[in-house]
Amino acid sequence: MNDLDASVFSALFKKAYEKCFGHPMSGPLTETESRLFSEKILDQTGLVIGAKSIKNYSSFVLSPANGKEENPSVATLDTFARFVLDAPYTDEVQRKNKQSHYPYWFQYRQQFQQPTKKQSGRKKQAAIVALISSILAATTLLIFSPAGKKKEKDFTDDFHQLQQDSLSRNGWFLKAKDDEYWNRRNESPGHLTLFTLKGDNWPDSVNQPNIKNLLLRKNNADCFVAEIHLSEFVPLQNWQQAGMLLLEDTSFAGKSLRLSLVYNDFSGGFPKSREIILQAIISGGKATDKPEEIVHQLLFKIDSANEKLVRQNLLHSALRVEKNGKSFRLLFANGSMPNSAFREILNRDIDMKPAFIGLFALKGFVDSSTVIPAKIDLFRYTPLMCKR
Asked: In angstroms, rounded to a whole number, what is the distance separating the alpha carbons of residues 221 and 153?
């Protein structure tokens, strides 16, 4: 970077830091602060700046003469500027197609440039005309794109392409990466393979909410249908499960709805019964300490005589969430054939606005259960016009 760009970047980074944390930057960022900063930028802009890069940038900004020289790309500079200037939500594909000239970085940079000589009358008139045209264009954009949000489109992922750049282009991002198991995500061709690792978004007295390899995508629609299809997922130990998670934020501080296919043999002291159930849980986030189980529906009681039949009936299973305003409809399908019909398991009002939809597998905060694969064959998302 030249001297001007370096000074502008320094001011921009400090402004972004203050917006994220609510106070001026006084020292280099820790790893935890860098991850939080990265997540805040992703939540607001839809674009990614790695936590490690942010940590390095903070050292450079505070001591440019002493630290390693940093040279962030124009795309990174534009992402910081979009965060500071409250730009509309986007993603890398949308930006590349429509704003590859990185307007927000140059808009922010403009204020640091030296004023030019007085313009001639003709040049001044041309500048005024250009300014009016820009204002009219921006006004039109706001009229046809309420609240600056991009129009949602139907989306289907059959998980035939699982490279990191392919997932990012499709709007996916990963939270709480476990390298060992994430590197096995493509071991079943045509599926995204997640694993029932230790973790839960239902906290206890010892553990904070954490789901490893939680794959997320942004949701901007007030009303939508989202569904996942699983292949041969048969949980057989507590609390092995896989499903879909709707979140108001990625830190588990807001409200959430979890819908999953679960193994259960917890009986509260009564004679144990090995069961596979459908479970749905809503959580109020940090504002409450007790989630609410709104669905606990028995699918199969398992014994040595019927385990083969259970597996056959779970060759294909699917979970669907339909949201219309506050109304949530939860559905399930299963069978030996992939085209089994969905059936309703719950229809009720829930006061939450999910900003993210996630795919997960977990086994709760237990060490006794083994880790098994959950092969996700398909994810489908359809935004809807809300019905009154």
From this structure: 9
Closest CA to 27 of 52, 54, 59, 53: 59
Q: Taking the CB of residue 259, how many other CB atoms lie within 10 A of it?
A: 28
Spatial separation of the C-alpha atoms in residues 161 and 190, rounded to whole Å: 8
How confident is the model at residue 43, as a pLDDT? 87
CB atoms within 10 A of CB 119: 12
Which of 315, 321, 311, 317 shows the shortest CA–CA distance to 334?
317
pTM over 0.85, yes/no: no
- First-last CA distance in the chain: 53
Euclidean distance between CA atoms 60 and 177, whole angstroms? 27
Is 152 in a helix, a strand, or coil?
coil
